[in-house]
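ugh ok so i messed up the first submission bc i forgot one of the chains. this is the corrected input, ALL of the components this time, i swear. 1586 residues overall. if the numbers dont match what u have on ur side tell me asap before i send this to the collaborators (the ones from the other lab, u know who)
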Amino acid sequence: MIRHGAYPTEPWSVSETALDLNVLAQSESLFALSNGHIGLRGNLDEGEPYGIPGTYLNGFYEKKPQPYAEAGYGFPETDQTLVDVANGKLVRLLVDDAPLDVRYGDLHDHHRRLDLRSGMLERTVDWSSAAQTRVRVRSRRLVSFSQRAIAAIEYVVEPVGSAARITVQSELVANEQQPGESTDPRVAAVLGHPLAPVAQDRDDRSVVLLHRTRASELLVGAGMGHIVEAPGRMASEVVVSEDWARLTVSCTVQPGEQLRVVKLLAYGWSSLRSETAVRDQVAAALAGARLTGWDGLVAEQRAYLDEFWDAADVVVDGDAELQQAVRFGLFHVLQSGARAERRAIPSKGLTGLGYDGHTFWDTEMFVLPVLTYTHPSSVADALRWRHSTLDRARARAAELHLAGAAFPWRTIRGDECSGYWPAGTAAFHIDADIADAVVRYVSATGDTGFEREVGLELLVEIARLFVSLGHYDRDGGWHIDGVTGPDEYSAVTDDNLYTNLMAARALVAAAEASLRHPDVADRLGVTPPETSVWRGAAAAVHVPFDAVLGVHQQSAGFTGHAEWDFDDDEDAYPLFLHAPYFDLYRKQVLKQADLILAMHWCGDAFTAEQKARNVDYYERRTVRDSSLSACTQAILAAETGHLDLAYDYAREAALIDLHDLQKNTHDGLHMASLAGGWLALVAGFGGFRDTGGTPSFDPALPQGLTRLRFSVRWQGLRLTVDVRHSAVTYAVVDGATASLVLLHAGEEVTVTPDAPVTRELGIRVPLLQRPAQPPGRSPEPAPPAGSEGNRGR
Amino acid sequence: MIRHGAYPTEPWSVSETALDLNVLAQSESLFALSNGHIGLRGNLDEGEPYGIPGTYLNGFYEKKPQPYAEAGYGFPETDQTLVDVANGKLVRLLVDDAPLDVRYGDLHDHHRRLDLRSGMLERTVDWSSAAQTRVRVRSRRLVSFSQRAIAAIEYVVEPVGSAARITVQSELVANEQQPGESTDPRVAAVLGHPLAPVAQDRDDRSVVLLHRTRASELLVGAGMGHIVEAPGRMASEVVVSEDWARLTVSCTVQPGEQLRVVKLLAYGWSSLRSETAVRDQVAAALAGARLTGWDGLVAEQRAYLDEFWDAADVVVDGDAELQQAVRFGLFHVLQSGARAERRAIPSKGLTGLGYDGHTFWDTEMFVLPVLTYTHPSSVADALRWRHSTLDRARARAAELHLAGAAFPWRTIRGDECSGYWPAGTAAFHIDADIADAVVRYVSATGDTGFEREVGLELLVEIARLFVSLGHYDRDGGWHIDGVTGPDEYSAVTDDNLYTNLMAARALVAAAEASLRHPDVADRLGVTPPETSVWRGAAAAVHVPFDAVLGVHQQSAGFTGHAEWDFDDDEDAYPLFLHAPYFDLYRKQVLKQADLILAMHWCGDAFTAEQKARNVDYYERRTVRDSSLSACTQAILAAETGHLDLAYDYAREAALIDLHDLQKNTHDGLHMASLAGGWLALVAGFGGFRDTGGTPSFDPALPQGLTRLRFSVRWQGLRLTVDVRHSAVTYAVVDGATASLVLLHAGEEVTVTPDAPVTRELGIRVPLLQRPAQPPGRSPEPAPPAGSEGNRGR
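and heres the new structure output, hopefully the right one now
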């Protein structure tokens, strides 16, 4: 889709050199800007044509009833869906009497560029109207990292060749029309007119529209203010109505002159605060931004990103596409979480309405691991959001006859919104995933304050859930029956290995954290007998293994199931659109990494030989119909010595949206897979693991790469790992006297700022041959190093 | 509910001696009349008050979309629901100027009686208006077994004490108002105004209203005609509009005189035929009924039922309640199927809208076994209906990537209507149940023509389904994974024992029937290699057994699951309204007989000791939240020597609606449980099985009964089995020279019409103690024999 000449490969930006309306919706997702609080899809300034218009505020949702053909006890009755709020991106242009619309007149040139270092979307347009009046338009857009409520647009028009009468209409439009419904379950339901008007304010400098959602009763304020620079006499007026507001500026501009409009946007919402409070909050944000000014906002944005890249950048030599993709992915992962601040990080960030704007386990197991080591404060925020939903999760557990807290499979506000329980409520591993994110964050940062205030309570309630969920068999083994693991092509199975191992880790973590903070544990009612129960269950956890085949079982009995008949389905991916769940569930076919994921995060539970055999077995049965798979397959392929296969998977994970590999980038970006691109490189080729509180590395590069350089933040330090085929160098930045102990291929190594450490690397030999994938599902081979295909397709 | 003094225990009728509006809706179900084609709920003649008004035609449904919160491939998009058609039962009465309404004036006496031998619902009312004008009304109502399209009402009014001006309004009303919606999943959704008017005809003697359903586009005609006998001058008029028609008759009646109105009703519907054809069909039915006249219809009805009872009656001595209940059940089972004629038999017959009027496996495994031995022609018809839906079942199988035919879990027209696949589509045992019904019918009747025309094709397509559904393990065992058995508190399990054994039987039956009819088999494309595949799979079928506990497993791994915690839920039955499926599915708790059902129908696969141990194990875990359980538990309790427990269960099955045990009799009768009352007696205390084509008996009575006498039709003969504690006598009726070979307790016995055979009976000693049931779920103990409680509560 988006793999064509209009998108050159560049190291620090994503550019579009010509406009192709067939990929307009995809480009809107790629060019989306967000700070985690406000999200603007990359719609054209003039609003039309569009693929999907979108302006989102994190956590701002509408409720709707969940329909069931046959309802059951505990089925959630209410769904939540992200709402497209008032669109402030609109800047329409009238040239003489023709509206700028790229579908009419002559478009001489059209460039867009997302600059990953400035954090701005830039656009240049060279256009003539049907009447042959020619203009150049340059716009720049940002969603501010430094001022959470603010987005801003600079819009500059310049006539070419002859003078033109220029009219700019800057608008704020609520309840925009949305494209029609889809039958794909991954697409959000579209709500018509979700916003009821509450009030409209205007003064000399700004307009604020207040609306309230009809069912969820959330109040939202959207404001705009302008700074206009015109080259002479100018007429302007502001019109405000319930669902829209408009500033109109008209003037005659000569060639060589320009009309410049800076548009400041502010958004705020609340479920509790009054109309006055929300109105004032929006007006205050506008006032602050006006004080900072356009240049100030641009400078702040750059400074914020410079700091981020300084600690987070990944250098990939030998593959320009992958280099671009991993930075693109990191940028969007940062955007999704940077200023989310105790709101969820949705699976598509704020780039589209896919999956209704819900957050899933993707956040804890794919996005947060990246942010833990690159932007840890946003991890603390994301987990504080989970903590803020504990009451809802406790109520859900009680409804399900369980103890502790049952976190929702998908949600915006914290309530379970899954309308299909076998692949929703039954996926209790979400609780273990949250526990793992807590443990990982505390281990990497040493943030004991967080652990005391937030982490321990999460761990305790999660441990209580799992103890109530599991049971002992007559031989003393501990089992979790009837739950669903990560792989959505199996459901409601006994002893899902990933769930069992992760639950065991969570139980131990809760016991250990309780020991570290006995006063807090005491307040939470934790007693020594209770922690003994946790440790006992963890120690007795059942790990299903098929002794005849010598491989672990994804869940009890899995390796005895029938094989999928791939002959019938070579062109029928994703399978879930072509086959019933009943058939997928009962066969040995995987949508995504599950046991493989357990081998990544619980690697200690497997021998090297088991890992090799398990990879060999499950690779052949994994169709990767989920975007949460390639990165994990990359990591284990690398660990088991299939470096070239790992490389292909790493590219697939990182390029998922730039190449629109799932053909649904138009609905928003796949944040977990973009994060997975980083994980594939760092955990895959860097061999990075957190081994009991010590960072551990075991690097090895595939043929196609000549160098991989990445950094991880660890306990306030930045550790830089620079890998070449022959050797790896570990270096520490920050803190003149600090030293860091790490494991290199099992060897304990101490690194200080003065003394980087270099180790030679051998050749990694796989135990088994490179495994095959299901028909048609081998990852696309990377183009030969340095080839044309790797530069600019 | 209905257990109060107003319902005396009578051998051949069900009477209500006073009107209690609190049980009005239940009484409407109990007093429902049907011939399998037309169903009239027992609503009061004057229409109000009502619990649920209802006039149904078998197979006449409306379509509606199936909603899903998260849809998936193969989820049925359309539901079907039975429609309340034009109500012709209405006969309103005006006494002077007061409408007869039991809620006003003085109701001196109100009797209703369902006569199981005449097949009529009789009513007498003695009522005074507020103005103290007193009348006696007597009405009788029948739905004709002999004239399929006809129902009729005789309505007689007689003033008491003084003359009265009597006005009778006889009506036909379409799109009646329905009571509101319920949240119980077992209750049908209510459609508003499902019928669009098409045409209205009237002539001197009758009115016909034609309507069409809006979505399913079925055409229905409802007609009424009258015979009026008035004691003098009479005014009458007919008014017809789109949705209603009314005959009004007025006259003055003296004490000792009476006004008599006979109302004839005719119904017909079609998905194909023209308006003219349907109109003429209804008019012709009315003309035929008019020719027969009221007395003729009454006589035909009695003759039909005399023949039925002559071959089907069950005599139970020692328990008057059970005697009444088993006849009541047989009567309603007959009503559900007698003239269904290639339409489905719904789970509630035509007595209410419960379960949307759908048919389930209940029909083949509970209702048809009774009809096979008491009214076999209706079994052939019901299975011909299944055969008529083969194309839809083949299409469904193909949609599910399976071979053969996948019959729907619930349907009216033959399309899958289940909106929750784990307890719907996944319950593939429906196919084996249909196969079993075919085999049972052919075995009992010797109807080889049916086998050639209908049975073999059903068996072949069912065998093909199961072969495509199963698979071999590495040791050569044959498994069916990921399906749901009868017990709805487990779902999507591997190797459900019932499904495996029943599928194996179906495979063998298909192979054997193919041998009997090689020409038909050849036309169906059956080859020797294919039948070998069927026999091979059946021979290798896996039967899960827990060697440590010495019991079979309901499904693979079942006996390793956690136990249900009954402490929490003593008052929370049915569990599915108080606990999530996920928790029910993963624990050792059963909604209903499953393995126990396999031991009934596939008894040869178990030793006597295994049966005893299995009963002991599963009894303790079965909560009987389904009405499809007590009868089967009765049968196996009897076989394993727990005769008193069996007796309690037999009563529960038979009394389910007379005692409103499930508290939803108002939505219609539980046809399977009513049939199960017969099964509990005949298969339980009679020990009746069809053992490889030979009828087999092994009688034993519980303490509470002194005698059990029943008949089964076998190959054109009637075999009567008369059981007392000390002895059993087998006798053959019909066919002067016929003889019948049967097995008595394993001994081969030949019975001829001249020579009944008597055998003494010993005492049956159970291997194990009487098992306990879950807390609060022991069946109600039968009252002591001859006690007051057993006569007339």
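quick check: The CA atoms of residues 741 and 750 of chain B lie 4 Å apart. that seems consistent at least. The longest strand of chain B covers residues 259-270.
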